Every structure is written in C-alpha cells, then in structure tokens.
C-alpha cells in the first residue's frame, strides 16, 4: 500500500486539535495531574485488542485517556525539579522532525537535518562562549551528555598514561581518579557508573554547594603525580542555583593534568545573558560540558547537548570507525559525537528555539528566569514564617519554614491547592520547598500568584 498524504490527515488533524486544546488550557488548569499512573493505567487495562482502530480514533482515545494524568509542565506556575516548557517555534520544529522521520546519524543520508543540527551546534557554542572547534552531540539529556563528556575524558586521561582503554578495556589498566563536589547532581555518579569508573572521590563544598577550591587543591595534591584524573565541576546547583568557582578550579585541575568536565544542565545558559555571565567566568577553559536544551532553552523533551573541546577523544570513544579520524577530524558524522547510532533529529528544535529568540532574546530569556526567581524570593521572604535559605543568584529558590514538619505540611497543601507546583526536597540537612524558574512563559502575574499560593499554604494549617 502506498502511503499518501491524506492517510495522515485524520491523525494529524486530531493531534493538532488536542494539542491546541491542551496548550490553551495549560496556563490556567490546576498544575498537578488529577489522576495518578495507576488510575490512568486502569483505563488502558486489557489485552491488545484483536481489531485495530482508525488513526484519528487512536489519537482521540489516547488524548482522552491520558489527559487526567498530565502535569501542566508548560504552565508559568510550574516550578518543579528543573524542567522547561516549550517555545512555540521549537514545538513546530519538533512536529516536523517526526513527520520528516529522518534518522539523523549520518551526514550523507540525512543532510538536511544534519546541517540544521550543525548550525544549531555552532550557535550554541557561540552563545555560551565555548570553543568554536568543539564537537557537539545531541543526546537525550544532561545525564547522557555527561556520559559522553566523561567517556571522552576516560579515554584521554588513560591515553596520557599510556593505556588505550578502547583497545584494552579498563581491566588491568591504571586506576582513574574522579573528583567531584559534594553537591554534584546524582546523574554524574550514574554516568561514572556506566563508564565503569565506580564511585567518585568527594571534595567538600561551601554553604551554597559550590566546590571549595582549597579542598580541591588538597585532593589533587594527594594523588601520585601522573595519576589519570578527571574533575567534575557544576554550573547551576539544583538547590541554590550556585556555580562552582571555575576561574580558580579549572586552572588548578589543569595544573595537575586533569580533564575538567562541567555539568551545566541548566546553568551553562547563564553564559548567554550578559548580566549573568560573571557566574561562569573561567568555565570555557574546561574540556567538556554537558547541558540540556529541554530545560532553560525550552525545547520539548528530549534534548541534551554534549560538548567536547577536542574532537579526537570523543570520536575515539564514540565513533564507529575511529582509526581514520585521529589526524584530521573534519566535520564528522553525528554518530561519532554521541553514543547513539540511530536517533531522531532532536537538535532541530534547538535550532528553531535559537532562531526564534535570537541572541538578544536568548539572553533576555535566561535573565528573565533569574529575575522572576529574585522576585519570588523577595515575595516569599515577606511571608511570616518563611525563610529563603539560599543566595538567589540564578533560577533556584529554596524556602524553609520554622521546622521540617511545617515545611513538609506546607508542601502538601501547595499540591492540594494546585495553583502552582513547587517540589519538596532536602538540602543541607533540612527540608525545603524548591522553586525552579525554568519556563519562558512565567510572567509577573505568575510570580504574584505563586507568592499568594505559598502565603495560603503557610497561613492555613489545613
Ligand atoms: C537535570 C539535571 C541533570 C540531568 O539531566 P537530564 O536531562 O535529566 O538527564 C544533571 N545535572 C543537573 C545539574 C540537572 O539539573
């Protein structure tokens, strides 16, 4: 059967209809889902039906069953974890990525989308002030981006010690020492585990969760000279939003021959806003960086970005045919710069987001998120019984009440209230309510309503 355009009309028309209904409502509906996964699952119980269903019917059935279980992540009052919304241009581009159905692994086979991803990569490097010759790989998220950067790091530091890990594996080779800050994200430990590098050595952090340069100096000096070493730094602590002191630590690590990887899932984007760029001073001297496009840049899930300054070690680790690359890397295929072979052209929505924002718009987006975070912190600190417990330098605000029990109870009342979503967490020995401002659509009204929601949750003991 030949597929024709009209075969898709029903499914696409219904999908566009449901998408519009959702997007019209997402800023006003209660933010939390009404149904949990078990409740939605009960509407999907039963065996695979014997008879199929027309495409438009499938889309209608899907939309109606899933709707009660949707979290309004696209709402301007969703502040959970660290999750961005979706810019309109990025969403439109994402739909096209599915319609075009290009396997974005090779320049030769899918030149259109590969060229768009390469352009997006150049814009990302430029906007973030990173080296123009770096390899950019589009991956599923910052976890995989860190896996990629640390995979390149592992090969490079072992090669310097005379050990080819890609040829010989890890067994029998020199041990690799990995130093991380006490408040690195859990995904760094995951990536190290996938790479067979085990549990890292933890270096102390200060009261905002920043790695301490003096503690790093001590840890680096403790190793025998020539020990293959990787240092993982952080741009954007999920609780405080703080940034590691790159200007001191990157040079220090390099003095000891270490590879420096930066986890900047949402913080790397501070580099794009002139008023925030001081936070990332010295960061561009690192060797690899992991970030997300699906957080601060507001492209739809999923898109992470793995950036490695020197193409040779990343292609040696992830390239399919590594031997010919070593002298003259050239542009390379997408599958040489990331773990996946076949994948969707997930870098295309990143291009669209950047094209729609422009340099000024991107800086304005990031500075705007940080500005709303400051406004939320100011509003919260005027509520009796609420304290802002971090220095609000970026997009993250942590609140605490008089004790953990009260903080937790207020968090539960906020979820029940539904006008906003703020995650409960634990930071530095106390329960906190954590606000992450990551959505492009958050405005002053959302900020005011959020402060009011917290005021209600604190005032009404339930
Ligand atoms: C979200 C986050 C990650 C993990 O990113 P994913 O996209 O979920 O893989 C890593 N580090 C930090 C600091 C994060 O905020």
Strand order of the largest sheet: 1-7-6-5-4-2-3
Proportion in β-strands: 5-15%
**Poorly predicted segments:** none
What is Rg?
23 Å
* Structural class by SSE content: alpha/beta
How many DSSP helices? 14
Q: Which small-molecule species are bound to the chains here?
A: pyridoxal-5'-phosphate
Determine the mean pLDDT: 96
Description:
This protein has helices at residues 5-25, 37-42, 55-66, 88-100, 111-128, 142-160, 165-168, 186-194, 213-222, 246-255, 311-318, 348-381, 404-417, 444-459; strands spanning 135-139, 177-181, 201-203, 229-234, 259-263, 288-292, 304-308, 387-388, 396-400, 423-427, 430-436. The chain has 462 residues and is α/β, with parallel strands linked by helices. It has a seven-stranded mixed β-sheet with strand order 1-7-6-5-4-2-3, with helices on both faces. A hairpin with a 7-residue loop joins strand 8 (387-388) and strand 9. Helix 6 crosses helix 8. It is globular and about 60 Å long. The protein binds pyridoxal-5'-phosphate.
Short description, anyone?
This protein is of the alpha/beta class and 462 residues long. The protein is built from 14 helices and eleven strands. Strands 1-7-6-5-4-2-3 form a seven-stranded mixed β-sheet, with helices on both faces. A four-stranded antiparallel β-sheet has the order 8-9-11-10.
